[in-house]
Amino acid sequence: MRLRQSPLSAAIWATTAIDAPETRRLEGSIAVDVAIVGAGVTGLSAALHLREAGVTVAVLEAGAVGEGGSGRNNGMAIPTLSKLDPNDLVARYGNAGERFAKLIGGCSEQFFGAVRAHGMSCDAVQTGWMAPAHRASRMEMLESRARQWTGIGVEAELLDRDQAAKLLGSEWYHGGLFFPKGGHVNPLGFTRELARVAIAKDAAVYTESPVTRMFKSEGKWVLRTPAGRVEADRVILATNAYTDKLWPGLKRSVVPLLNFQMATQPQPERVRKMVLPTGIAASDTQSDLHFFHWDGEGRMITGATLALPWIAAHARLRDKIGDRVAKVFPAIGKPWFTHIWSGWLAMVPDFSPHFHHLDDGVIAAVGYCGRGFALGFAVGAELAKASTGTPDSELALPFSPVKAAVPLHEISSPFASLAMLHYRRFDTRD
Question: pTM for the whole thing?
Answer without folding.
Answer: 0.96
